[in-house]
Amino acid sequence: MKLYSIFLYSLVLLGCGPLYYGISINRPDLNTTPEQKLGKIIEPWEDSSRIEGKTGEFEWWYIDAEGEDGTIVVVYFYRVHVLGGKHFIGMSITPPGEESFFDIQYFKNEDATFSNEKCDVRLGENWFYGDLNDYSIKVDPFGERKIGVDIAIKSKAPPYRPEDGIIRMGEDYFAWLSAVPNGEVFGTVYLNGDSIPFRGEGYHDHNWANAPFQTMMNSWYWARAKVGPYTVIGAQLNLRKDRGGYTIPILMVTTEDSIIVDQYGPDNVLSKFSDPKVLESKFNESPSKNFTLSSHDKMISVTFRGEKIIDKTNLFDRLKTPLPMKFLFDLSGIDPTYTRFYGTTDLMVSQFGDTLTGNGILEFMDLR
Length: 368
Fold this sequence. Notes:
The protein is mainly beta. It folds into two domains: 1-26 and 217-368; 57-211, AttH-like domain (AttH-like fold).
């Protein structure tokens, strides 16, 4: 689950610790099992807008893709209802062997539309729409580097959510739908005035919530990889102590035809971390470069390896937070950081006997 700008709007802008994290009270009211009101079949409306536009709600539609030449593209459309409606598109392009070019553009309520029938998000003249099988994403070139995309993704794996995908903590919740765990991506990428043909593979998911993440979680790991005929998604959510202090691992393995592993929670999935990567962070833990998830019966195990850093940032720096505010957060020991790795992934499925190796993405978000 790769997302910086929500922090600018999920902060109450004049506050530090209590306003960033929320009032600390004993609230271990997490339902550790997602809701189970929907059936197993995922329908197109589930990738439509899932919030009502109330203050504090937000959601985003995300895609990342790796081209055959190694170019990495990340695009997300955000709907935000904190301090009024202020929506935005975030985008980065990382050419092979070069630095990542990132930018954000914002949109007012009157320039934004969100469908409740299927994924159909319009921000200005830009769009993100589709039906679980085929999607079109268009971002007109913008910013100093004139970055943009006009790409399509065609799904090659069934959509996935753990149960209904909604995890509640009393009145607060967050939710996740992996609409396209793996797909073929093709189209055009724009950078520095150039139009660059793009073809590769990618991933699309959709997240929504009604409370800032830092009021619910300390951090999370998220990873995905293509390993032989399998698409693998793994994650671990590390909840705040006053939310119960739970760790919630998630593991999904699918072929093009069907999901073969769908495991959720510490009763079903074991997690292990190793080889911390020391970064320039004043207060945070260093993210682990190796993230392993396995079933309790040892029938399946996957290890994501972060061998190359492709993005690391202090979120306040990325958002160009005003210096006085950043200074106050710094004094309060608040230093949220994001790290994204690229590397190999090993998948062992005991019933097939072999360990397969592929490539994937591993990210770590520290919200503290």
